[in-house]
Design goal:
The complex is a heterodimer of chains A (997) and B (189). By secondary structure, chain A is α+β, with helices and mostly antiparallel strands. Chain A is 23% helix and 28% strand. In chain A, strands 9, 10, 11, 12, 13, 14 and 28 form a 7-stranded mixed beta sheet that branches. A 6-stranded mixed beta sheet of chain A has the order 40-41-42-39-33-43. In chain A, strands 45-46-47-44-49-48 form a 6-stranded antiparallel beta sheet. In chain A, helix 4 runs parallel beside helix 6, helix 7 packs parallel to helix 8 and helix 8 packs parallel to helix 9. In chain B, helix 1 packs antiparallel against helix 2. The chains are: A alpha+beta (997), B alpha+beta (189). Chains A and B meet through strand 9, strand 14 and helix 23 of A and strand 7 and helix 4 of B. Chain B: This is Sarcosine oxidase subunit gamma.
């Protein structure tokens, strides 16, 4: 059994007990515990069920590499699945539930999958669910989706908040172990500004467990903390290294002390000139049958729990090792009064110092032996042994309640690899380490990441510390600073005997054992799966990974990668470096989606653009329509009215009395300079340079491929300046389009552009009573003589500073009045008040659309879709014949553009008066090569016209303008065929009498 | 042109929030975009006349008499003046530079100006902008055109622990809201 020791525990505070619940059961630990250590301290060895076979699983590691102890954490809006117990700090009231079992952790139906294990081999899904085809969508996929995944998906929105933080440093040190602290010290001493980050809650890494560095760590931490140019952060994990020295860091602010309202995680976005990765190394499991049983643990994790938390994973522990380091666990357990009945060492005659010490203390060492199997189901009860060369026939069984396994160490090279650094294979230690000659390169082509300490392959404590210091000094030198070789105790020579690479244990394990030997605990990938993949022809490690899912779980194969590719290379009879590793990708461990979103959620998910009258709309029952980031009133439904009814009322009222439209979102770009006219002549299809000051002109803008991209009214302000109105959606990109041409092509033209879109609130006063309302406010002459159609004037209306444009997008008498945005709300209020007795009603964008459609005015984005040219829309009148050039002119002369068979704009009137479905196609006789109906046109805009009391539409139709009166068929998606007659697109007031009064 | 001040509303109605820093909307401020050859003598004269300030060096802000001039791009300045006087100054600039390739436009209403004050000012802004705010990288009165979260912003260090930030008017509430959450009292960096 696992238990809490009576004394000790470097990190726990026994005076501060913490109670928590696990699967509803209340347990107790101490401040300083992780959830994993607290569970082990409470003899909770079984912590979850495995992914595929639902095998009972226990804690196997003590840090970020843990594959098994994943928990459903918290409740309600704070619930989160797949939280790693080994990196979750215990707090009072923590609620954890184990995952992937039903009905309970102890009795799980899914465990029956184990009996079917022979059928769940590599590629199982590909092989099994391929036939019949139709079954995939309706039967297999839903079932697999239901069974897949470890934790439950949260049901509601996340109740926590998150944020970002941008940091800029000279040297970023990732990892606050002894190597990282030495690196930070060396770099800071040379004058660099340093940020050192550590994923756990304490400094020092594993040095305090394995070596005697405690006093040096304390001194370094104190010294660094006192330095002005050093920032030190705990609970901040390096997440990813990217181009240009960009590094992300994941700070867990409140996971250890939840506090509603305060940010839970903070994503650091760090620009570092140099990165020093002192991220240590991760111990590898050994591959023997039953290595996934609860109670089988990494040897290093075992001593972490004993030293850090005073938790003994077992009373009687057997060590299985292929190296000397595992003996540290033996000595540690003995020092803490625990039994080690046996060491199983794959090597013959291990003669290292550590092994000798263990032997001297009376520990039995079976050298040249292997673990042949593990007894026990929900916890270890014993271990079977056999000769290392054997196939697994056990020669002996030893009772024990825990097994420590030590398969050697793998440096954490992730941060060297994320951005392209290359690795080398160390034969003696059987690990990949950074190739110093091929580091990740920065924007100048120079290396910007280096590794220090165990991450660089310097696995021994003193050697690692020294290596860290050197890496820090080198980083400082790379910045052009002078950094002496760091002082510090010289590493004492270590008398460790060489490791014996053992990838299958025993070496000739039979099939039964190989199919019960786990490589990837989290994704349930067995040794036999990888061997099968190799037999089936998978040679690339990347393909094998995807075929078997090895290393594809949330731990990204931290424990399984090297073991898996070693098995693969063995099966392929290739060397390990030949097979290579899979790609290390950020983030180092999963980070919360909330931290990535940061402030971008809820009300600030996206910037909401508000016009100056936004609050009025909101207070007056607006039904919003998103237009880009703007919110525009779609309609203003009154009580008892549907949105549709409101729209119809607004249309009629505008036609019959007086409407008010917030047109502030309209793009307004000031174009000035001696060449402004020439510039606009190039931008628009028609002539703008001939426009007189005081007048307005409608124009079309095409891109260089000839396609219509924007339209609007240009007002000439004076000889050298024009105010260009764009569509609401076009304001920014038309401004950018202008600057693009001015800066890249016509750089010698004297033209300035200034985007004034937000400077003005723009209000359209529309309808037969429009003039009356403005005259009521007074201040200017609004007569047709003084301010004719397509004219503009500046002056004060009712004391407001205005510019009035007599333009109409509705076919009614219309004045668009621009006022400084700060006066917009007051001016609108005033118009609403004074217009009350004239029947004024505000109208929204839908009424605007109907009003323009009744008049046959095109709308960018409806009648145009990026493939339509003005000629298609019958807008020849707006295309200058006189101009030698304009953007799009040449493109519009290409054969495809002049093809008479291009679909052309017409009006469409249903025979029944019904509204045509938007986007519907008109069918033509016959079928095309794909067995689809031939088509001869499509609907571009369609509305119910309250004015005409019938459906009206516009569409593009083959030879449309020549086919007036013909009836086309438009099949709807509802099975109904709509019959519509081709008519003139102007449905209302063809002469334009109403707007021109 | 006389501005009926009673009819004017600042974008945020003077909203304010105190957390890690004090976030306050500044009163309406006159802002004029001035484009043209910044090295020309006539430009220096016009700017001097309008603000009393010298042409600023690249990215810097110069102060004049109750007004200042900020460098925005190689051919663009932003003049910060009294709100009520902005329209008149704009007209004066266009008159003074007549015949030159030069444009002055009043943009006072297109912007919001927000003050971020207090010891936490730098870290509050640092949560939202990728710009390097370290003292050695951002001098006092240096105009930084960057972004805060998803919107463009320009800001400068106007005094000890005091940033001034300009954003577009339509996103004033968004800018204020994200600054407010960044200044949450329990969110110190």
């Amino acid at each position: 059994m696992s238990q809490r020791l009576a004394t000790g525990g470097r990190l726990i505070d026994r005076s501060q007990p913490r109670s928590f619940t696990f699967n509803g059961k209340t347990l107790q630990g101490y401040a300083g515990d992780t959830l994993a250590s607290a569970l082990l301290g409470a003899d909770q060895m079984l912590v979850g069920r495995s992914f595929k076979y639902h095998r009972p699983r226990g804690v196997v590691a003590s840090g970020a590499e843990e594959p098994n102890a994943l928990m459903n954490m918290g409740e309600g809006e704070l619930f989160e699945p797949n939280q790693r117990a080994t990196t979750t700090e215990l707090f009072e009231g923590l609620i954890a539930r184990s995952q992937n079992h039903w009905p309970s952790l102890d009795y799980d139906i899914g465990a029956l999958n184990q009996l079917a294990a022979p059928f769940f081999s590599a590629g199982f899904y590909y092989k099994t669910f391929i036939h019949p085809r139709a079954a995939w969508k309706h039967l297999f996929e839903p079932f697999i989706r239901k069974s897949a995944g470890l934790g439950q998906a949260p049901k509601g929105a996340d109740g926590d908040i998150y944020e970002h933080y941008y940091a800029h440093v000279d040297v970023l040190v990732i990892g606050g172990g002894i190597a990282g602290l030495r690196a930070a010290h060396a770099a800071a001493s040379a004058g660099a500004r340093v940020l050192v980050i550590e994923q756990s809650a304490t400094w020092g890494g594993r040095a305090p467990v394995d070596d005697d560095f405690a006093s040096e760590i304390n001194a370094l931490v104190a010294e660094l903390a006192a330095m002005d140019d050093v920032q030190m952060r705990l609970r901040l994990m390096g997440a990813g290294v990217y181009d240009h020295g960009f590094v992300t860091g994941y700070e867990r602010l409140r996971d250890h002390a939840p506090k509603p309202g305060a940010p839970r995680h903070r994503l650091w976005k760090i620009r570092a000139q140099q990165v020093v990765s002192c991220t240590g190394a991760i111990e590898r499991p050994l591959s023997f049958a039953g290595n996934d049983r609860p109670g089988v643990m990494l040897a290093s994790a075992m001593r972490d729990y004993v030293v850090n938390h005073a938790v003994a994973p077992g009373q009687r522990t057997v060590l299985v090792t292929n190296n000397d380091d595992g003996y540290r666990t033996v000595l540690c357990l003995l020092d803490h009064g625990l039994e080690v009945p046996l060491v199983i060492d794959a090597r013959r005659n291990p003669e290292g110092t550590l092994a000798a010490k263990a032997r001297a203390r009376g520990v039995t060492i079976r050298d040249g032996y292997a673990a042949a199997g593990v007894r026990g189901t929900k916890r270890v009860t014993g271990i079977e042994i056999c000769p290392i060369e054997g196939s697994g026939g056990a020669v002996d069984t030893v009772e024990c309640d825990a097994v420590a396994m030590s398969g050697g160490w793998s440096p954490v090279v992730h941060f060297y690899s994320h951005c392209g650094g290359k690795l080398l294979w160390d034969e003696a230690g059987a690990f990949f380490y950074p190739d110093a000659a091929k580091p990740p390169l920065n924007q100048s082509g120079a290396g910007f990441v280096r590794c220090g300490g165990a991450a660089n392959g310097a696995l021994q404590g003193a050697e690692a510390a020294q290596c860290g210091g050197q890496a820090g000094a080198e980083a400082a030198r790379a910045l052009g600073l002078t950094a002496p070789v760091p002082s510090g105790p010289a590493p004492e020579p270590q008398a460790e005997a060489p490791l014996m690479p053992v990838w299958v244990m025993p070496l000739n394990a039979d099939y039964h054992r190989r199919s019960h030997t786990w490589l990837d605990f989290q994704n349930d990938v067995k040794l036999s799966d990888v061997q099968l993949a190799a037999r089936e022809g998978y040679e690339s490690v990347e393909h094998t990974k995807r075929y078997t899912t090895l290393g594809m779980a949330t731990d990204q194969g931290k424990l399984s990668n090297i073991n898996g590719l070693a098995v693969l290379s063995d099966a392929l009879d290739a060397s390990i470096p030949q097979v290579g590793t899979t790609t290390f990708r950020p983030p180092y461990t999963p980070i919360s989606l909330g931290s990535i979103a940061g402030e971008a959620r809820g009300d600030t998910f996206q910037p909401l653009r508000r016009t100056p009258m936004h609050d009025w709309h909101e207070a007056n029952g607006v039904h919003w329509e998103p237009v880009g980031h703007w919110r525009r009133p779609y309609a203003y439904p009154r009580s008892g009215e549907t949105v549709e009814q409101a729209v119809h009322r607004e249309v009629k009222n505008t036609r019959e009395a007086l409407g008010l439209l917030d047109a502030s979102t309209l793009g307004k770009i000031l174009v000035t300079g001696p060449d402004a006219g020439k510039f606009l002549d190039m931008l628009y299809t028609n002539m703008m340079s001939s426009l007189k000051p005081g007048r307005c002109r409608y124009g079309l803008m095409c891109n260089e491929n000839g396609f219509l991209m924007d339209d609007g009214v240009v007002a000439r302000l004076d000889e050298n300046s024009f105010l260009v109105h764009t569509t609401s959606g076009g304001a920014e990109h038309i401004h950018a389009h202008m600057e693009d041409w001015l800066q890249c092509e016509w750089w010698d033209w004297q033209v300035h552009t200034v985007n004034l879109t937000e400077e003005y609130a723009q209000i359209a006063v529309v309808g037969p009573h429009a003039r009356k309302l403005l005259e009521k406010l007074g201040g200017m002459d609004f007569s047709a003589e003084n301010l004719p159609f397509m004219g503009w004037a500046e002056g004060q209306i009712g004391g407001f500073d205005t510019r009035v444009f007599r333009i109409s997008f509705s076919g009614e008498l219309s004045f668009e009045v621009a006022v400084p945005a700060a006066q917009g709300a007051a001016f609108w209020d005033r118009l609403v008040k004074e217009g009350a007795d004239l029947g004024l009603m505000p109208y929204g964008t839908e009424a605007l659309h109907i009003l323009r459609a009744e008049k046959g005015f095109i709308m960018i984005g409806d009648e145009t879709d990026g493939t339509v040219i003005p000629q298609d829309l019958g807008l020849h009148w707006a295309i200058s014949k006189k101009k030698t050039d304009y953007l799009g002119k040449r493109a519009q002369e290409r054969p495809h553009m002049t093809d008479p068979a291009r679909w052309k704009l017409v009006g469409l009137e249903t025979i029944s008066g019904a509204v045509l479905p938007d986007g519907a196609y008109a069918t033509a006789p016959g079928y095309n090569a794909n067995d689809q109906r031939n088509t001869q046109g499509r609907v571009t805009s369609t509305y119910y016209s309250p004015t005409l009391e019938r459906g009206i539409a516009m569409g593009l139709v083959l030879n449309g303008p020549d086919r007036m009166g013909e009836v086309l068929n438009f099949p709807g998606t509802n099975g109904q065929i709509y019959r519509a007659r081709i008519v003139d697109p102007v449905f209302y007031d063809k002469e334009g009498a109403k707007q021109n009064v | 042109m006389s501005n009926p001040m009673t009819m004017t509303n600042s974008p945020l109605g003077g909203q304010s929030f105190k957390g890690l820093a004090q976030i306050t909307e500044a009163p309406l401020t006159g802002m004029i975009t001035l484009r043209g050859d910044l090295s020309a003598g006539w430009m220096a004269d016009a700017v001097k006349q309008a603000t009393g300030a010298l042409i600023p060096q690249q990215r810097m802000i110069t102060s004049g008499t109750g007004a200042s001039a900020a460098w925005m791009s190689p051919d663009e300045l932003l003049l910060l003046v009294d709100y009520k006087a902005a329209e008149g100054i704009t007209k004066g600039l266009n008159t003074a530079t007549a015949g030159q390739f030069c444009t002055a436009a009043n943009v006072s209403n297109a912007r919001v100006l927000i003050d971020i004050k207090g010891q936490g000012a730098r870290s509050v802004l640092g949560k939202l902008t990728p710009a390097d705010l370290r003292p050695e990288s951002l001098a006092p009165m240096e105009m930084r055109r960057s972004r805060i979260a998803q919107v463009p912003a320009a800001f400068w260090l106007a005094g000890e622990d005091h940033f001034r930030l300009i954003a577009f008017r339509s996103v004033a509430q968004y800018a204020f809201d994200i600054l407010k959450s960044a200044a949450h009292p329990a969110a110190a960096v």
